[in-house]
Fold this sequence. Notes:
Organism: Candidatus Methylopumilus planktonicus
Radius of gyration: 20 Å
CATH superfamily of the largest domain: Isopropylmalate Dehydrogenase
EC number: 1.1.1.262
Order of helices and strands: EHEHEEEHEHHEEHHEHEHHEHEEH
Structural class: alpha/beta
GO molecular function, one term: metal ion binding
CATH class of the largest domain: Alpha Beta
Shape: globular
Enzyme class: oxidoreductase
Strand content: 15-25%
CATH topology of the largest domain: Isopropylmalate Dehydrogenase
Pfam families: PdxA
Distance between the termini: 10 Å
Amino acid sequence: MTSFKPHIVISSGEPSGIGLDLCVLLSTKKFPAFITVVGDKNALADRAAQLNKSITFYENTSIEHKGDHSLSIHHIPACENIQTGLLNPKNNQYVIDVLNFALDGCLNKSFDALVTAPIHKSIINESQPFTGHTEYIAHYTDTKNEVMMLTSKTMKVALVTTHVPLSQVSRLITSEKLEQTLRTIHRDLIHRFKINSPKIFVAGLNPHAGENGILGLEEINILTPVINKLKLEGMLIEGPLPADTLFTEKYIQKADCFLAMYHDQGLAVFKHANFGLGVNVTLGLPIIRTSVDHGTAIDLAGVGNIDPNSFYSAIDLAIDLAQKSHV
């Protein structure tokens, strides 16, 4: 293992949710990295007090994260007073400012990877168009072909479409979109994850992968031609395969990544098998970005009864990918 200790930046997310709780708990967990939390220092101190935790803050100072009840923090003041468990749209710009600072630091190489705590899409949408973290980060980094992938120790599941209504999925799955998605997955599995000759298993869109056209033509007209084209280039891709039997043991043992056509087709299975242990990673970006596999959990904020394992796993993966990119 490389001795290189990367510098990880954490955007603290929606301040009324569990993002601050996660950052407070982080202070007691040791990682082989420098970690900087971006957010309102006073809000973090208040949440720590609410959780009966004592934290030493090092503002604008990079320190190795030793789990000694301390946090390195870049302070960005909230626009309004933060109340635990109470969403406030007046703090939307603060949430965006926190994220932008972290992104800028990754783009200018001040940080080696970004871990994002969860944000609340609907509250941000009250002041500006915002479909999600992944889409915002892709736009900010001028990325055209980002791919959302959930990963755990047992499986990786990527998506062709993400946060769109189910009624729009079919028209959004074009030959160009599918090909770009598969190329991005293939490239990042090789270059980010260091998986040689990755095997990708592709789900069909329709029940039974269309049943030879009886239950839909997308497999015949779009999926199969693209898959065959890329297989001729040497990519190890199988499909389209019926989604109802895709996530079974015989495929899990062989696949480096599954590709689902839409959000719930892939993530319902993934979260059933890995909830609390999965990590959301965005492929195709010029930076490394990981995140938790859950939301803001407003009702659990400040209660002291949350599971931080997905957050810790996201940090572990960010460190691992940063170390691999450093080699």
